[in-house]
């Protein structure tokens, strides 16, 4: 299902992608992608490993050549167009910090080379960061390195923030701190955040829209509230599983003598139990497990 969020005409105050395809040799990694990311939204990008999430983000940034067009505020962007970083910041799943510099020197270097640096915002972020300013990057833990990289990126005065598994491999306490910082210090109704993550349960409560990509194609782009209102989980004793089939279930799971499925919100079965579907449930129902089966 594709929602009104997918527009065909480039518009101001938006990040628009039209007919984007990307090949690696004969392999088609992206297939005719059409998306619009408007101002003031927090958007989740979900997909299995290899579905095309990172390729999509890097194509949006002009880092990869591709078919189709990318527009930022109505202006078409070209391959390796440096103007994109006047409005867009990118946090990938790896960092590019110089181990030879101290934390303070790293901050001063980025400040000196990036005209979008916001000194006031940086001061606020660094004051609450607990980063050891005079320690070399090489001596920082993985968590501290990632924190420095993330806070530097959040100190840039941009409209769009793209996050590609930004907290991969970090503990739950840091992940929670990071997303709280994103909401408290970066996001407002003039900004847009696109988050690619496998930790969907951790960001579900902050997402306004959801995009699901599978085998290089967008199979869903919808407001989260709308999606959850039109689907539900219905559960029955396992011996009554045949009663689910007329409801065209999206997925059927058997656990502890019960059988559950995602169905339309208006579906009813006498004696059944009903539950609100989470994004992880909906994702698995649409794309299946790691082997692609439902």
The structure class reads alpha/beta
The radius of gyration over CA amounts to 21 Å
CATH architecture of the largest domain: 3-Layer(aba) Sandwich
The DSSP helix count reads 8
**How many angstroms separate the termini?**
18 Å
Number of strands: 14
What is the name of the CATH topology of the largest domain? Rossmann fold
Helix content: 25-40%
Biggest sheet, spatial arrangement of strands: 6-7-8-3-9-10
At the fourth level of CATH, the homologous superfamily of the largest domain is: P-loop containing nucleotide triphosphate hydrolases
Q: Low-confidence spans: pLDDT under 50, at least 5 residues?
A: 290-294
Q: Averaging pLDDT over every residue, what do you get?
A: 87
Oligomer: single chain
Compressed to H and E, one letter per element, the order equals EEEHEEEHHHEHEHEEHEEEEH
Largest sheet: 6 strands, mixed
Strand proportion, as a percent range, falls in 25-35%
- What global shape is seen? globular
The top level CATH class name of the largest domain: Alpha Beta
Offer a quick outline of the entry.
The chain is of the alpha/beta class and 294 residues long.
Walkthrough of the structure:
This protein folds into two domains: 14-224, P-loop containing nucleotide triphosphate hydrolases (Rossmann fold, 3-Layer(aba) Sandwich), CATH 3.40.50; 227-287, Alpha-Beta Plaits (2-Layer Sandwich). 26% of the residues lie in helices and 29% in strands. The protein is built from eight helices and 14 strands. It has helices spanning 53-60, 103-113, 119-127, 142-154, 172-186, 200-203, 224-230, 279-287; strands at 14-24, 27-38, 41-46, 67-72, 75-76, 88-91, 160-164, 192-196, 209-214, 217-223, 231-237, 252-255, 258-264, 273-276. The strands form three sheets. The chain has a six-stranded mixed β-sheet with strand order 6-7-8-3-9-10, sandwiched between helices. α4 runs parallel beside α5 (172-186). The relative contact order is 0.15.
């Amino acid at each position: 299902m594709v929602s009104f969020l997918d527009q065909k005409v480039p518009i101001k105050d938006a990040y628009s992608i039209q007919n984007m395809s990307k090949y690696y040799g004969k392999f088609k990694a992206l297939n005719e992608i059409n998306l619009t990311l408007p101002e003031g939204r927090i958007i989740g990008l979900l997909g299995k490993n290899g579905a095309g999430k990172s390729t999509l983000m890097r194509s949006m940034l002009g880092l990869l050549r591709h078919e189709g067009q990318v527009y930022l505020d109505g202006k078409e962007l070209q391959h390796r167009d440096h103007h994109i970083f006047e409005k867009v910041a990118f946090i990938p799943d790896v960092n590019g910090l110089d181990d030879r510099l101290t934390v303070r020197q790293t901050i001063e270097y980025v400040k000196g080379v990036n005209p979008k640096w916001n000194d006031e915002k940086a001061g606020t972020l660094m004051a609450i960061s607990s980063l050891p300013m005079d320690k070399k990057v090489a001596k920082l833990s993985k968590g501290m390195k990632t924190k420095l990289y993330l806070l530097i990126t959040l100190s840039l005065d941009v409209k769009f923030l793209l996050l590609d598994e930004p907290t991969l491999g970090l503990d739950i306490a840091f992940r929670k701190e990071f997303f709280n910082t994103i909401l408290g210090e970066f996001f407002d109704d003039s900004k847009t955040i696109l988050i690619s993550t496998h930790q969907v349960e951790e960001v579900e409560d902050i997402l306004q829209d959801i995009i699901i990509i599978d085998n290089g194609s967008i199979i869903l782009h919808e407001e989260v509230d709308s999606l959850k209102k039109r689907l539900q989980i219905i559960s029955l004793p396992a011996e009554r599983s045949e009663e689910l089939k007329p409801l065209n279930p999206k997925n059927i799971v058997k656990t502890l003598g019960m059988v559950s499925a995602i169905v339309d919100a208006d579906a009813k079965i006498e004696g059944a139990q009903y539950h609100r579907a989470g994004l992880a449930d909906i994702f698995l129902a649409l794309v299946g497990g790691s082997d692609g089966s439902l």
